[in-house]
């Protein structure tokens, strides 16, 4: 079996930054075990699998260790691949049928816009084990939970950038991932964040679109802004534009194709 495959850096305008995703085009529904094996072989934070439907594409996302319910950067990469390979016309809407319902994307020849569900965090008590695992020396400004992930708001960009979590200790906490965030010091950005997800095989995700479905509603209210410019301060780094809109969040980002080839197994 020959599978068309692309590796794409998402939420960046330059190669070797942002978050890399593999995008595999298959002609019909694929076996879950095979998709998981491919994702483990690619060893990227996410591998996306697409096959055509009457009104769009089925889309599933896998880390090297598990299938996930929602992924922003691999959806952005999938839309980028559809437009760049001319499977979709530049002015056509990409429609993805996923475990999180229908997601759509559009392209203005520079930025890709994703329509995602809003995932606002509800305030919770901060688990002491979470503070210890993150290495935080004082209580956060806010701790929330959005059904799968913790949101931890701290007082200062330096705290976000200098975190060195104990990932073994993090694994003892029940969740999918943890966003740690603050207001940005630089005027180019409104907020900064990092995202840790050892539970699904990713110690630190370079840029996490789905996390901004939670970050967006929180910071839009805190800062009184309709649109936010967000920077994810991983080693690779990435930029998103985030616009909460009712029960949806609009994410905008750029992407760069790094390689194209065929998967032969």
Question: Can you give keywords for this protein?
Answer:
alpha+beta; Diaminopimelate Epimerase, Chain A, domain 1; 265 residues; 18 strands; 18-stranded mixed beta sheet; globular; 2 domains
What layout of secondary structure does this protein have?
Layout: E1 3-10, E2 19-25, H1 32-42, E3 46-53, E4 56-62, E5 67-68, H2 72-84, E6 94-98, E7 101-107, E8 112-117, E9 122-123, H3 128-134, E10 142-145, E11 149-153, H4 157-162, H5 167-170, E12 177-183, E13 191-197, E14 202-205, H6 212-223, E15 228-232, E16 238-245, E17 248-253, E18 255-263
Parallel strand pairs: 2-3, 4-6, 11-12, 13-15
Antiparallel strand pairs: 1-2, 1-18, 3-4, 4-5, 6-7, 7-8, 8-17, 9-10, 10-11, 12-13, 13-14, 15-16, 16-17
Question: What's a concise summary of this model?
Answer:
The chain contains 6 helices and 18 strands.
């Amino acid at each position: 079996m020959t599978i068309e495959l692309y590796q794409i850096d998402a939420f960046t305008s330059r190669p070797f930054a942002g978050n890399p995703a593999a995008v595999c085009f298959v002609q019909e529904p694929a076996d879950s075990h095979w998709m998981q094996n491919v994702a483990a072989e690619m060893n990227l934070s996410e591998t996306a699998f697409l096959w055509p439907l009457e009104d769009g594409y089925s889309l599933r996302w896998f880390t090297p260790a598990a299938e996930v319910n929602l992924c922003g950067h691999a959806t952005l990469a999938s839309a980028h691949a559809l437009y760049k390979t001319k499977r979709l016309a530049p002015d056509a809407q990409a429609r993805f049928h996923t475990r999180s319902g229908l997601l759509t994307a559009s392209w203005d020849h520079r930025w890709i816009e994703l329509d995602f569900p809003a995932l606002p965090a509800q305030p919770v008590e901060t688990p002491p084990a979470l503070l210890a695992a993150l290495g935080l020396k004082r209580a956060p400004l806010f701790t929330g939970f959005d059904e799968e992930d913790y949101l931890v708001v701290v007082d200062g960009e330096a705290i976000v950038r200098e975190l060195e979590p104990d990932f073994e200790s993090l694994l003892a906490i029940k969740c999918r991932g943890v966003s740690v965030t603050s207001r940005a010091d630089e005027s180019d950005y409104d907020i900064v964040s990092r995202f840790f997800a050892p539970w699904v095989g990713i110690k630190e995700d370079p840029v996490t679109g789905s996390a901004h479905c939670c970050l967006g509603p929180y910071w839009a209210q805190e800062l009184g802004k309709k649109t936010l410019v967000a920077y994810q301060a991983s080693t690779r780094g990435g930029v998103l534009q985030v616009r909460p809109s009712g029960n949806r969040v609009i994410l905008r980002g750029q992407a760069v194709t790094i390689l194209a080839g065929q998967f032969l197994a």
